[in-house]
Amino acid sequence: MGAWTLRRRLVVVVVALVAVVAAAMGTLSTLALRSSLTTQLDEKVVAAHRRTVDGPTFGSAARGGDEVVVPPPPVGGPYRPGQEAGTVTVEQPAGTDPADLAPAQAYTITDDGSSIALDEAQIAQLLALPTGEPVTVTLGGLGSYRALSSTAPSGTTVTALPTASVTSTVTSFVAVEVVVAALALLVAAAAGLVLVRRELRPLDRVVGTANRVARLPLDRGEVVLADRVPARDTDPATEVGQVGAALNKLLGHVELALGARHESESQVRQFVADASHELRTPLASIRGYAELVRRSPDEVPVSALQAMSRVESESERMTALLEDMLLLARLDAGRPLATEPVDLTVLAIDAVTDAHAAGPDHDWRLDLPSEDALEDALVLGDDHRLRQVLANLLSNARLHTPAGTAVTVRVRRSRDQVVLQVADDGPGIPPALRESLFQRFTRGDASRNSATGSTGLGLAIVHAVVTAHAGSITVSSTGNGTTFTVTLPAAPALSRT
Ligand SMILES: Nc1ncnc2c1ncn2[C@@H]1O[C@H](COP(=O)(O)OP(=O)(O)OP(=O)(O)O)[C@@H](O)[C@H]1O
Ligand SMILES: [Mg+2]
């Protein structure tokens, strides 16, 4: 019953209750009917008994010492006037042996009004009954009877009437009851189903609202939670209404909180963007002055020249860092990107050419779609940013793998997507980094950073640019190499083929 719906449970409970009530009522009314019918039958038995006791005795048996001679009973009819079919009568004059009773002293009336004699066993059974009150007795071969026995000085008289009429009335009453109860159960089940459905329909609407909200992307950007449980389902007088009202309250609360969070995030982003932007100008001046000093080597001592060259290189590094931070802040702000057709094949060729120049010790390879399928690698996007994606991935393959490593750039069309892969057979990404690889400032071996100029923003930018293009990036890395897979939607105009 644990996994049953509330609907089913309610209907089953209603039906079970109706069944219990019907069974109780049926049992009680059946018992009452039986007892009242038995009382009526007993009254008839008493009346018939009185008529027998008060009436004449047949045969020549002695009664009270006098020889009473009564005319023989009519052939094929009741021995006594007014005896109805089924009546059983036994008259044993005092002092006689039950086995000697004449047919006229122990008989029953059949349905057609004639009489038949009782056998010895039946007579013995009836004469053994207690006297005074009607009792139930089952006569061998005849069935169940209510019998009244009385003893007088003249002898013993027993009168019995069959209980068949009581039994058949009770049986048909029970049959009617069962049919009525079955109908009542059907009606209760149907009505329960309809009612429960109708009462719980508002709950479905509340669930629908919750599900729609659950499908909304709430993790970034400005979130508008316009969806609410309809007003008619928020009546606090009903339980479902309380749930609906509570959900609305929760949604309002969440919307406010998300709004506040978005607001403060925007402020931080704006600050980072502004700060990066503002720092570019003084940095450019520092670089300029350092260069100026370096170009006039005769006027400054050698140690100062060395220091100036360090200042120059560090300010270049800082400029690159600022550019990265500015780009990330802008991508975070959801600034619209350019959407021009960009051929990833061309980008791949250019990027590999540059990488070859920067890292001649690596083995650079290109794996492009066949000539006639070139147009298949077209995507809509920002040429400059997509070049940056490739440049970052290739610079990683160059900087984080030893000389001699083979790096393959692969471009493929797969249905309505263009897949770009950068695979190397280097030592792989350290396992500790893999979880947070695309997060900002995640980088390996910190000691190398100043030498390589590594900041840990490269893959964060790749991720942000790819996401801004509605694409996705995955990485698989083992001890034998690393593969970055970028998937971008193909330019729609050409995805017809
Ligand atoms: N192809 C690769 N093979 C091995 N390690 C890699 C590879 N690509 C990335 N990594 C590891 O992932 C880290 C994060 O790379 P990411 O490009 O984000 O930062 P970075 O290269 O260290 O710095 P930046 O690119 O900002 O100059 C790297 O420091 C490096 O340890
Ligand atoms: Mg990098």
Rounded radius of gyration (Å): 54 Å
Q: How many domain modules?
A: 3
Order of helices and strands: HEEEEEHEEEHHHEHEEHEEHHHEE
The low-pLDDT segments are 60-70
Taken as a percent bin, the fraction of beta residues is 15-25%
- Rounded mean pLDDT is 87
The secondary structure category is alpha+beta
Helical amount:
40-55%
Individual helix count: 10
3D shape: rod-shaped
As laid out across the biggest beta sheet, the strand order is 5-4-3-8-7-6
Strands, count:
15
EC number: 2.7.13.3
Subcellular location: Cell membrane
Transmembrane segments: 173-196
Organism: Cellulomonas terrae
Explain how this protein is built.
With 497 residues, the chain is an alpha+beta fold. The chain folds into 3 domains: 6-170; 216-335, Orthogonal Bundle (Helix Hairpins); 340-494, 2-Layer Sandwich (Heat Shock Protein 90), CATH 3.30.565. Helices cover 50% and strands 17% of the residues. It has 10 helices and 15 strands. It has helices at 6-54, 120-127, 164-215, 239-295, 302-332, 344-358, 383-399, 431-434, 449-452, 458-468; strands at 62-63, 66-67, 88-93, 106-109, 115-117, 135-139, 143-152, 155-162, 340-343, 363-367, 378-381, 406-414, 417-424, 472-478, 481-489. The strands form 4 sheets. A 6-stranded antiparallel sheet has the order 5-4-3-8-7-6. A hairpin with a 2-residue loop joins strand 12 and strand 13 (417-424). Helix 3 runs parallel beside helix 4. The longest helix has 57 residues, at 239-295. The two termini are 54 Å apart. The model is unreliable at 60-70 (pLDDT under 50). Adenosine-5'-triphosphate is lined by residues 392, 396-397, 400-401, 424, 426, 428-429, 433, 437, 442-444, 454-460, 482. The site of magnesium ion (MG) has 4 residues, from helix 7.
